[in-house]
Every structure is written in C-alpha cells, then in structure tokens.
Automatic annotation (TrEMBL):
<comment type="similarity">
    <text>Belongs to the short-chain dehydrogenases/reductases (SDR) family.</text>
</comment>
<dbReference type="InterPro" id="IPR002347">
    <property type="entry name" value="SDR_fam"/>
</dbReference>
<dbReference type="GO" id="GO:0016491">
    <property type="term" value="F:oxidoreductase activity"/>
</dbReference>
<keyword id="KW-0560">Oxidoreductase</keyword>
<dbReference type="Pfam" id="PF13561">
    <property type="entry name" value="adh_short_C2"/>
</dbReference>
<dbReference type="InterPro" id="IPR036291">
    <property type="entry name" value="NAD(P)-bd_dom_sf"/>
</dbReference>
<dbReference type="InterPro" id="IPR020904">
    <property type="entry name" value="Sc_DH/Rdtase_CS"/>
</dbReference>
<protein>
    <submittedName>
        <fullName>Oxidoreductase</fullName>
    </submittedName>
</protein>
Length: 253
C-alpha cells in the first residue's frame, strides 16, 4: 500500500471529492482525519471505515482558532500529519461582477483562499518538525481560465495556485512538497449547484455546454480526482512540487 500508516488530514471531507479521497487514502493504508464544517456526513463515514483508521473533526476553515484546533486534534489523535489535502471549498453565486454583491466575493475568498492559507499556516510547522510531508490544494480548471458569471470562484482558484507556489518555495528545504489538483467538471453536489445557477440565469443546459468543449466528452468522477491526490500524497511523486495537475478531461488544452 502506497500510504501505509501515513496520517492524512482532509478538509471538505464530506463533499463528493472529499469522500472519494477519504476512501482512496484509507484503501492505501493511511490513517485519515476527516474535517468538515459539520459531522453529519463524516461521522457515518468514520463508522463505516473504522475508528481505528479514521476520525472526524468539525471545522470552519475560515476561522483560525478552528483550523488550529483541527490540526492539534489530528496530531493528538494520530501523532503526526504526513499529507494535508486542503480540499474545502464553496462555489458562491452565479452572476456577473456588476450584478452580484460583494458579500459573495467575501464568502468565497474566506473559504477558498483564507481557508487554504490558514491550513498551510498551521500544518506546515507540524510537517517541518516531523521531517516533511505532502500538501495537496484543490484548485480547479477555473484556476487557469476565466469564465463569465463565476468571477469570485475563478479568482479564488487562481489565488490558491499562487499560494501553492509560494508555499512550495518556502517549505522545500524542510522536505515538504506542495501542489494543486485542478479538477474540471466532476459529478458532485457543487457541480449540481453550478448547473442550477446557470439554468436560473437563463444560460441553458450547462452540462451539455461543458461536455461539448471537453475533449473526453464527459464529466469526471470524484474517484478520478482522488487518484491524483493519492499520487501526490505518496512517494510516487517524490520529485514533484510547485506544480499544477489538471484532471479535467483535456478541457484546459
């Protein structure tokens, strides 16, 4: 197993990609802390997979004291953090810059950017003191392209690529690798929300439009994103840091 006895902390563990990542990391031998804003989904998943392998903690990733507690709880429970998957995110509202309120921007940036920064701030010292580790930040295909009516989301996903590159340079001397995974359209609740938002805005069949411009012609599955996360968390990617990994069916080409 690629991650036997490694300790993995995953935020947004209750979402579609998060749950797939939890299952994949556990299948590769890891001990996993499931972090999410509530435990309604994560606790049943812990019960299913086994408390000897998993635990969960409630966290609002935009709140510094809660992120600090999440990291401390992980170390207290499992002894270390070898892999950190900064996966928590929110899509925000669909609408143009002119027509959406600034509060939408503030909420999206708080979760998607501040949340990642706080995770790095509290996890990196643990990894440094433990001799290294791997950090995987969930960006998006929206992190490398512009699109109308999703400016807040796209901005946040561009921003975490910048955070990743800075963190990779700062932490390489400590044996810490930092990369982003950039999913395209994936079969998750978030994508359903985005589809509904575009439909309400009169944009037609959003899924059909996305599939039409995706070379592989389909949405991705959460497990396909989780596979890339496991690769980046394992020693298979031991010479990989500071990079953007697209998992988008070729949509960014």
């Amino acid at each position: 197993m690629k991650l036997d006895q490694k300790v993995v902390l995953i935020t947004g563990a209750g979402g579609g990609i998060g749950q797939a990542a939890v299952r994949k990391f556990v299948s590769e031998g890891a001990k996993v802390m499931l972090a999410d804003i509530n435990t309604d989904i994560t606790q049943p998943l812990v019960n299913e997979l086994g408390a000897y392998r998993c635990a969960c903690v409630a966290v609002d990733v935009a709140e510094a004291d809660q992120v600090e507690n999440m990291v401390r709880t992980t170390v207290d429970t499992f002894g270390s953090i070898d892999v950190f998957v900064a996966n928590a995110g929110t899509e925000g509202k669909i609408g143009s810059i002119m027509d959406t309120d600034v509060s939408n921007l503030d909420k999206v940036l708080a979760v998607n950017v501040r949340g990642v920064w706080l995770g790095l701030h509290y996890v990196m010292p643990v990894m440094r003191d433990g001799g290294g580790g791997s950090i995987i930040i969930t960006s998006s295909g929206a992190g490398v392209q512009g699109s109308p009516n999703t400016a807040a989301y796209n901005t946040s996903k561009h921003a975490v690529i910048g955070l990743m590159r800075c963190a990779a340079l700062e932490s390489a001397q400590f044996g810490i690798r930092v990369n982003t995974v950039n999913p395209g359209a994936v079969e998750t609740r978030m994508m359903e929300s985005i589809e509904d938002g575009f439909a309400e805005a009169g944009a037609g069949d959003f899924r059909a439009m996305v599939e039409a411009v995706t070379p592989l012609g389909r949405y991705g599955q959460p497990e396909e994103i989780a596979n890339m996360m496991v690769f980046l968390g394992s020693d298979d990617s031991s010479y990989c840091t500071g990079s953007v990994y697209m998992v988008d069916g070729g949509n960014a080409t």
